[in-house]
Amino acid sequence: GSDGAVHDEL
Amino acid sequence: MNIFRFLGDMSHILSFLLLLHKIVGGKSAAGISLRTAEMYAIVFCTRYIDLLWNFASLYNYLLKLLFIGASLTIVYFMRYGPSQKATYNADEDAFPVQYLIAPCAVLGVLINQDHSSPFEMVWAFSIYLEAVAILPQLFLLQKQGEVENLTSHYVFALGAYRALYLLNWMFRFMTEPDYQQRIVWLSGLVQTALYCDFFYHYYQSKKGGLNKSVKLP
């Protein structure tokens, strides 16, 4: 996303 | 990883195990909404499509596979298992899901974390759809009035998973400076709120013992 983070939650 | 998120994931796994135990083990789909089951299958297949190019951790990877596998297994048995088809309350499982799926798709395209990325649109769609996917199941239970034990434990475990995720988000918001995720906050709140009425009746019924069935007004 724009925050640059991989979605790490399920 | 924090304790709330871990317990939330475990509660989510428990909800799948309870449902599989009833549908595959007990060969019964009575009181279970195929519409909700299908929406969860859509939710996990769309959200976890990034299995193919993202790797956050082994835990994350395996649970994604597990959630996709379990949700598809449930749909498969409800659609094609002879005894499951015979016990499924098709007439009462009548919530008009197109009114949930279409707005979620539009919202996913319009409101997401990064407009340039198709995956972010799909991901946001899955978050919105998950928030409301339980509605056909609650609608079916409401129609039937009395809820089987296993089904009530299943819905409770699913609600507990989302409530624990709310605590997880609060914890991460306080401990991780960059943690934002406004979309999930709002969707998670909506999703958990939908369970409040059920939680109340579950508590009222179960305080005398876990084997008392839940009656909905």
Could you describe the 3D structure shown?
The complex is a heterodimer of chains A (10) and B (217). Chain A is 0% helix and 0% strand. With 10 residues, chain A is largely without helices or strands. Chain A is elongated. The N and C termini of chain A lie far apart (15 Å). Chain A contains no helices and no strands. Chain B has a two-stranded antiparallel ribbon with strand order 1-2. The termini of chain B are far apart.
* Poorly predicted ranges of chain B: none
Q: Kindly, what is the distance between the CA atoms of the first and last residues of chain B, rounded to a whole number of angstroms?
A: 39 Å
Mean residue pLDDT of chain B: 95
Number of strands of chain B: 2
- What integer value in Å does the Rg of chain A equal? 7 Å
From the spread of the alpha carbons, the general shape of chain A counts as elongated
Question: Which assembly state applies to the chains in this document?
Answer: heterodimer
Beta-strand portion of chain B reads under 5%
User: How many helices of chain A does DSSP assign?
Assistant: 0
Structural class of chain B: mainly alpha
Largest sheet of chain B: 2 strands, antiparallel
Task: Sum up the overall morphology of chain B in one term.
Answer: globular
Number of contiguous helices of chain B? 9
Helix content of chain A: under 10%
The whole-number mean of residue pLDDT values of chain A reads 65
Across the major sheet of chain B, the strand order is 1-2
The helicity of chain B comes to over 70%
Largest interface, C-beta within 8 A: A-B, 9 and 24 residues
**N-to-C terminal Cα separation of chain A, in Å?**
15 Å
Strand content of chain A: under 5%
Give structural attributes.
heterodimer; A: 10 residues; elongated; B: mainly alpha; 9 helices; 72% helix; 2% strand
